[in-house]
UniProtKB/TrEMBL annotation:
PANTHER family: HYDROXYMETHYLGLUTARYL-COA LYASE. Keywords: Lyase, Metal-binding. GO terms for biological process: ketone body biosynthetic process; L-leucine catabolic process. This is Hydroxymethylglutaryl-CoA lyase. InterPro entries: Aldolase_TIM, HMGL, PYR_CT. The keyword Hydrolase does not apply. It comes from Sediminibacillus albus. GO terms for molecular function: hydroxymethylglutaryl-CoA lyase activity; metal ion binding. Signal peptide: none annotated. Belongs to the HMG-CoA lyase family. The keyword Transferase does not apply. Pfam families: HMGL-like. Transmembrane segments: none annotated. Residues 7-274 form the Pyruvate carboxyltransferase domain.
Length: 303
């Protein structure tokens, strides 16, 4: 099988994993978790989102978290930034990479960002240009790429137009999101092949949700098409607060296990990763949904 020898995992748990949790996690516990993640070999951590606190109360302490973490020089610390005001706060804490985001679905974009797709582009362009002037790299997210809970299938030409505009802004990488976990391996394979007619596969990352149990199969399909970067959330935490039923991010611990079994290098220490998962599990006071953590919980009960 023609799969990459090495895969880069971008840990989004502290942002995407926590954003939908109803119980507010104390800032110090978030900081301790990110510090633990920084020592696992993970080279990229999305620490929070600099959106207005009223939209995502769980992440209202983004500034304090950014200021409080211990920086590992081998880790890129990123954050989601919706607009110029959020960018000011992100730059003030010395974020390494700025992530801009939008949806491929008009309806989902309006519910998530409160703007049309056309009105979103100028806002993101301003953020991207300013971030790059400040010496930061910029990453893009497009959600509902494989299907929308409001609009169903998404036109490929519509997605391609969004990709073109985001790359024109100077983003280095575009993460394609299966926001409600509807993608299947053949769909993933076809989409990457179609996008590869215009862009290198290395320009994309994949962001899968495991809502219907297909995330790992979709990872393999993407790898076979040359994708070697995946977003994942430790323990399978998270989902989209604006897409009902979109629970279950691709679990970092399950992904690392599969890749290591396939002799694909990730640079991640699996034991340290599990210890970091136990740390946030204690903070949440509930079992994490990943297969690895469910297995560990079962073994602990059996003992």
């Amino acid at each position: 099988m023609n799969i990459p020898e090495e895969v880069k995992i971008k840990e989004v748990g502290p942002r995407d994993g926590l954003q939908n949790e109803p119980e507010i996690i104390p800032t110090e516990e978030k900081i301790n978790w990110i510090n633990a993640l920084s020592n696992t070999g993970i080279s990229y951590i999305e620490i929070s989102s600099f959106v207005h606190p009223k939209w995502i109360p769980q992440l209202s302490d983004a500034f304090e978290v950014g200021r409080g973490i211990i920086r590992n020089p081998n880790v890129t610390y990123a954050a989601l930034v919706p607009n110029s005001k959020g960018l000011e706060r992100a730059l003030a804490v010395g974020i390494d990479e700025v992530s801009v985001f939008m949806s491929a679905s008009e309806t989902h974009n309006k519910k998530n960002i409160n703007k049309s797709i056309a009105d979103t582009f100028p806002v993101l362009k301003e953020v991207a240009e300013t971030a790059k002037q400040e010496g930061k790299t910029v990453r893009g997210y497009v959600s509902t790429v494989f299907g929308c809970p409001y609009e169903g299938d998404i036109s490929f030409n519509k997605l391609l137009n969004i990709c073109d505009k985001l790359f024109e802004m100077g983003i280095e990488e575009l993460s394609l999101g299966d926001t409600v976990g509807v993608a299947d391996p053949l769909q993933v394979s076809r989409l990457i092949k179609d996008l590869s007619d215009r862009y290198s596969a290395q320009k994309f990352a994949l962001h899968f949700h495991d809502t219907r149990g297909t995330a790992m199969a979709n990872v393999l399909a993407a790898m076979l098409e040359g994708i070697n970067t995946f977003d994942a959330s430790l323990g399978g935490l998270g989902g989209c607060p604006y897409a009902k039923g979109a629970s279950g991010n691709l679990a970092t611990d399950d992904l690392v296990y599969m890749l290591h079994q396939m002799n694909v290098n990730t640079g991640v220490n699996h034991h340290k990763l599990i210890e970091a998962a136990k740390l946030i599990q204690r903070s949440l006071a509930k079992s994490l949904p990943s297969r690895q953590m469910q297995l560990i919980s079962h073994e602990e009960v059996s003992q």
